[in-house]
Predict the 3D structure of the following.
Amino acid sequence: MNLARMIFMSDELHDKTDEDGIVTRTRRKGIYVLPNLFTLAALFGGFYAVVMAMNGQFENAAIGIFCAMVLDSLDGRVARMTNTQSAFGEQMDSLSDMVSFGAAPALIAYEWALKGLGRWGWMAAFVYCACAALRLARFNVNTSVVDKKYFQGLPSPAAAALVAGFIWLMTNLEVNPDRAAWFMFALALYAGLTMVSNVPFYSFKDVQMKKSVPFVILVLIAIGIAVINIHPPVVLFALFVVYGFSGYGVYAWRKARGLQTSVISTSTDEPDEYGLHK
């Protein structure tokens, strides 16, 4: 057994008696600890965001969503790097995503501004939440036929970043939520409906972390971190606005060149247990 499995997975020996009374000792596999720690931490980020919103601390709620997004991007990479992928971890990741990027942003948006719109407000929040669930379910079903370079529809973490980023920015600028309620309404509907669209969004999955890169790439990363720190609410929201609309640019470009605009075929078959992810 390699070192990664010894460290990140718990095994338990147990005896089994067959019909002839022969006792055999087998090894019962447990759960990989390291990648699931990141998943649980991402789940906590979503839960923390909801709690902060309930207490009127919307800036902290938005930060909780962004922290969950960072942690969610790490659990899969950690699992692949340590060879600790599992069907359990993939299912756990999907459930965590539904809380952190589906229910949490919808509830935060509702508590922040949509509540003042009455039925229109909770309708927008529900549409966003429902679309997040539909997007995650469709991703799981289509995981074996997806073009790895693109997502079909806006990924749920990016949609959550749009909603949370706007709330963080408005809170930081001390804008009255009532003045931004209808914009929040439109943004929640846009993010939700774009999640279930067929618009292709670049996935960045072809970026290899293990390969060497030119020195200038590290310099650019350092500059990017410095730019974000100038004013995180403005910079992060601007970045995700650009990404949130980039899919339509890719769609128009592919259509203009006569390429297939749908980068994934929708399947209604039951997914295999192994290979699922958010």
Summary: Residues 32-249 form a domain with the Four Helix Bundle (Hemerythrin (Met), subunit A) fold (CATH 1.20.120.1760). The beta strands are 9-17, 23-32, 150-152, 200-202.
